[in-house]
Amino acid sequence: MNSFTPTDRSRVKRLHERGKYDEESVFALLDAGFIAHIAYVIDGHPYVTPTSYWRTGRVLYWHGSSASRMLRRQSPGLPVCVTVSHIDGFVLARSGFHHSLNYRSVMAFGTAQIVEDPAEKSRELDRFIDRLFPGRRASLRPNNVQELKATTLIRMEIEEAAAKTRTGGPKDDDEDYALDCWAGVIPLRQVIGQPIADPKLRGGIGYPPDLAAFHDGADLCEVLAGNAEKLD
Amino acid sequence: MNSFTPTDRSRVKRLHERGKYDEESVFALLDAGFIAHIAYVIDGHPYVTPTSYWRTGRVLYWHGSSASRMLRRQSPGLPVCVTVSHIDGFVLARSGFHHSLNYRSVMAFGTAQIVEDPAEKSRELDRFIDRLFPGRRASLRPNNVQELKATTLIRMEIEEAAAKTRTGGPKDDDEDYALDCWAGVIPLRQVIGQPIADPKLRGGIGYPPDLAAFHDGADLCEVLAGNAEKLD
């Protein structure tokens, strides 16, 4: 099993038993999401922006961001921290102190660089669509040269990454189990709603079979994880 | 209307018409969420961690984080960027280039400091429970002195903040409307699932009326926004 090697930067310190560094755990959490929060430093100050991302092997990609101008001036690249979080539930205990959250998160570290190679750029922008909406690209007007030029693509090879998860119910102090207090887990999920057709949609175009997984009530993590399996 | 005054740090540059700086817009987005991604700099390197937060006026609070050790060595405080994002839907256009996302996000900047005042600490930890689960505190065993000591509470007065949102359908190139391609919006929401009682729950304790808003299928943003109204 391939693993990332944690240093002080990525090693899970608080509740370290919740940390994992193997590719399988890290990739599964990355592939089940599509929004990362990406942190970088400009003039010594921290910034974090939410951004759609995708993964090819150990490389994460995302579209040009507010860090792009910075990146253009800094050719060796910009150190970044990319965090992806899935919040799975509130954990309600019998004291405020023992309330908690169930979650799955990944912190990945690396150096962001602008992709200059047109072939990599074109291939990866296609992959971005394919990983979200498999089969959809066949019905789209392909990217043209101006669009490829206008898009800044950023890549970051994952140098270190840690996955951290919490599951299960509350853990209370022994004497608190006697309290007259409801305790348990209130689950949370990100779900898909009823698709809304563009009012300008041409007559006769129905909801396409390649979007069938995106139906009202579907679990987003499951849909994305299923898409990732089709890619690899 | 009170507003934050943007500088280069918070001013929305890309698609600036999507940016708002008034307290009402910023606070509404903060109050409809409970997980922030908090970025800070240690030894010149960026870090971002997902954390539960709450708001009292222009101050954001959260529990001790991996930045705490750093903070203890740096008494004037640590510059941080706090980002809260709600992802509302995929926007499917007729070309890859025009695909987009509907979202509501806030970036807030300030200086993180450890709360040392026991009264503020006790009051705010209570508020954390009250803003999530109004009425619940009456049934909990109150915090004890050791727990208050063991909890690091962090405060950040918002110095600058920007809200940024996108809503609505795809905007395609004129000639692409003729394509045989489905386009529209696939909504996304964070919803509550069926509550799971702790297996160690004492007999006779039912799901309490004060958690009634947390029912299967409820929209998390709406529940949290409703809770915030009860607080103010």
UniProtKB/TrEMBL annotation, chains A, B:
InterPro entries: Pyridox_Oxase-rel (IPR024747), Split_barrel_FMN-bd (IPR012349)
Pfam families named among the record's database cross-references: Pyridox_ox_2 (PF12900)
UniProt cross-references to SUPFAM superfamilies, sorted A to Z: FMN-binding split barrel
Entry's transmembrane regions: none
Domain of life per record: Bacteria
PANTHER family recorded: 5-NITROIMIDAZOLE ANTIBIOTICS RESISTANCE PROTEIN, NIMA-FAMILY-RELATED PROTEIN-RELATED, FLAVIN-NUCLEOTIDE-BINDING PROTEIN
Entry protein name: Pyridoxamine 5'-phosphate oxidase family protein
Organism, scientific name: Dongia soli
